[in-house]
Amino acid sequence: MSGEPCLELLPLRWFVVKEADMLRLLADREQISPQFSELMIAGSAQSVYHRPGVVAEARRLAVLLDSLELRWPSAADVRELLERHPSAREHYAHDEDGERWYLRSPAIEGYERAFPGKRWCLLWQAPAGMDAVTVEGESLLAMMRLMPLLDGTRSLAQIIAGISGNEPARELLERLVRSGVVRERAAAGLEVDALPDFMFLGHSGLMVRDGRDLLLVDPIGRPDNEALGRDRPLFQLLNLASAVLISHHHWDHLDFQTLTRVRRDTPMIVPRCHEPSAANPPIAAYLAELGFVDVREHDPGDSLSIGALRLRLAEFRGEAFGLGSRFDAFTYHLRFKERSLYGTVDACHDEAGGMDETIREVASWGRPDLFLFGSSEQEHSKPYLAGGLRHFSNELKWRPELLRYHPDFADVARWARVLRPRWLIPYAQFLFGGRPRADLRFATRPPRAAECGEDLPVRHRAWLAQLDRLALELNVPIALLSAMQGIRD
To answer: Where is the Metallo-beta-lactamase domain positioned along the sequence (predicted)?
Structure first.
């Protein structure tokens, strides 16, 4: 570590989108459906493989379908809508099968190179407003090589040396500095030995530690959790990881904004993609294109070690986004120090069935100390949007059990009775903020969820009350953690 000041990127939101989509989205900025957030276009594996213009057109079609104000538009409703708006459908093909209707996006041409051959906009929120650069895909990938260097551990001279010969990265650095989103900080390193044994990073991201071996799972950085991690900076933590595990390809687990700030030689543990499709893009190919050189594909049932950590992968069934939306993924069982953890991520049920059999199998591996679960009960409130960029349809009218795609409290209670965990840890409510909280102790019972969530938005009040009822019903402590809060001995 040099004695010179180090540079770090301010906590900020930034994303990439194809230029063709950006131009159309700007033209239709008043026509953006809230069901398609900006995150759906943030360079995710869910969107980058689609042809230019598809994302913007999907948003436009979603707005038109919303205008019908019908939960289940009929085939005749959709036919009449398209007759009134013939210009709205450039990329999507319309077909019907009796009362079932579809608007299908075009087939994806390939999964090896998503970025080259297209022009991209890189946008970020600067103090003076939104700033952006527009570049060809190869230059975008070269620019992204800069991002891991801006974690606050390198001086300007070290950063310049790190991007020597990379003209796009040098241009991006100059642009970021002019935008006022790069700041100096005193040289300081993160002390691994001072970290807790377990840490919640925000949303569904977490870290486990055994000695100096760190595994990060589904990390996702946003300004709020970055700000909460001032004494344990999130992106310094990422760049100290022994490995990163990605459970599945959805944007909030395979996050472009976060992963492009990770050292490209970090071992990446990802699900093996057996049959690529729009619902199942290959994570390994996506990461390789971003420059990762140590991507390790695995299947449910595999066991592996990360230093002293022991990882065992289990089946994932869940998040049905329309018919034909199954994808390769896994839940995970971890042993670290003398403890164990099982995380179900967003698993619940899908076209292949539910998670009960997998839960029984995991229980046979031993009683987990920590059970991480989602309990958001999310469902497709507008079922015709369930297929996302792949297609719009009323198909779920004939499969109503797939309308809910995240676990409810009945699921969690049933699983917990089989697993018999010592602590329950809820997540998957897109929690990044809050206030700084001291680490918990494994030997001390955590406070009630309602007490920990008193600073959460009002919309979470019913969820907090359900958590406390679940803890009482099961007689198992629930630890509702703030972002960047840990548990230690």
So the answer is: 238-319
Cα–Cα nearest to 178, from 143, 126, 120, 133? 126
Q: Which residues contact 48 (CB under 8 A, 6 or more apart)?
A: 114, 115, 286
**CB neighbours of residue 91 within 10 Å:** 19
Can you tell me the distance from the alpha carbon of 140 to that of 136, in angstroms, rounded to the nearest whole number?
6
Residues with Cβ within 8 Å of 33's Cβ and at least 6 positions away in sequence, in order, are: 59, 62, 63, 66, 385
* Rounded (5°) CA angle 473-479-484: 160
The helix/strand/coil state of 152 is strand
Ramachandran angles phi, psi of 286, nearest 5°: -60, -45
Q: Is there a contact between 186 and 233 (Cβ–Cβ < 8 Å)?
A: no
Q: Pinpoint the alpha helices (H) of 43-184.
A: 54-67, 75-84, 137-143, 156-162, 167-179
Q: How many residues are there in the chain?
A: 489
Q: Closest by alpha carbon to 375, among 334, 395, 405?
A: 405
Eight-state DSSP code of residue 379? B
**Alpha-carbon torsion angle 11, 16, 21, 26, nearest 10:** 30
Q: How far apart are CA 266 and CA 15, in angstroms?
A: 22
Structural contact between residues 381 and 355, judged by C-beta atoms closer than 8 angstroms:
no
Strands, DSSP E only, in 246-363? 268-271, 295-298, 303-306, 309-314, 331-336, 339-343, 349-350, 353-354
C-alpha separations of 212 from 59, 150, 201 in Å: 46, 23, 18
Give the model's confidence band at 39: pLDDT under 50 very low, under 70 low, under 90 confident, else very high. Answer: very low
Q: What is the mean pLDDT of residues 398-403?
A: 97
Q: Which of 20, 31, 44, 222 is nearest to 125 (CA)?
A: 222
Among 83, 96, 46, 35, smallest CA distance to 395 is for: 96
For 117, phi and psi rounded to 5 degrees?
85, 5
Which secondary-structure segment (H or E) carries 209? strand 205-210
Task: Tell me which residue of 449, 467, 458 sits closest to 373, measured CA to CA.
Answer: 467
Across 52-61, 296-305, 439-448, least confident range: 52-61
The whole-angstrom separation of Cα 458 and Cα 463 is 10
CA dist., res. 203 & res. 338, Å (int)? 26
- Are the C-beta atoms of 461 and 407 separated by less than 8 Å? no
Q: How far apart are CA 263 and CA 441, in angstroms?
A: 31
What does the alpha-carbon distance between residue 482 and residue 480 come to, in Å, rounded to a whole number? Answer: 7
Whether residue 47 contacts residue 41, with contact meaning beta carbons closer than 8 Å, is answered with yes
Residue 258, pLDDT above cutoff 60: yes
Given a contact cutoff of 8 angstroms between Cβ atoms, the answer to whether 159 and 7 are in contact is yes
Sequence letter at residue 305: S
Q: What is the pLDDT of residue 130?
A: 86
CA Rg value for the chain = 23
